[in-house]
Amino acid sequence: MEASNDYAALMEGRLANFPSKEEIAGDLLTIQQLRGELDAAREAERQREVEIEELKKKLAAAEAEKIVVQSDLDSMKEKYRREFEGRNRKARKDLHLARVSLAKEYEGFWLWSRYSEGGFELEAELERLKDLEVSLDVDYGLALVSGPSLGRLDLPEISGDSVNQD
C-alpha cells in the first residue's frame, strides 16, 4: 500500500505542478502572437528583397544610360572639336589669302606710285627681263647633256644576242 501511496503522492505533485488551462491558453496565445510577428517579419523581409531587386534593376538601367550619355557626350565633343579645327583652319586660310591679296595690292600700288613718280623706266625694266631670259636659256642649255659626252661614260656593252627583238 505504501507503494500506492507514493504513487498517489507523485501524481498529486505532478498535477499540482501541471499548468492550468488558463496558463496553457495564455501560452498558446503568446505562441500565436509570436508566429504572427514572425510571419510579418518574413513578409517585410520578402518585400525588402523585392525592393532591392527593383533597385538593382534601376541601378543597372542608370549605368547603361550613363554609358550611352557618356558616349553621346564624347561624340559631341569630337564633333565640335572637328568643327572648331575646321573653322580655325578656314580662318587661317582666309587670313593667308587676305595677306597675299594685300601684298599683291601693295606691290601694285608701289609699282604704280614708282612709275608715276618717274623712278621706273619701262624700257630699262624690259631690257633687264630680256637679259634675264637669255641668261636662263644659257643656264638651261648648259644643263643639257650632249650626245658625244655620253660616249665618255663607262657603260656596259650590250650585244645583239642579249637583246630581245620580238
Automatic annotation (TrEMBL):
Q: Could you list the residue ranges forming a coiled coil in this record?
A: 31-79
Lineage: superkingdom:
Eukaryota
Give the record's keywords alphabetically: Coiled coil
Protein name (record): Uncharacterized protein
Q: Which organism is it from?
A: Brassica cretica
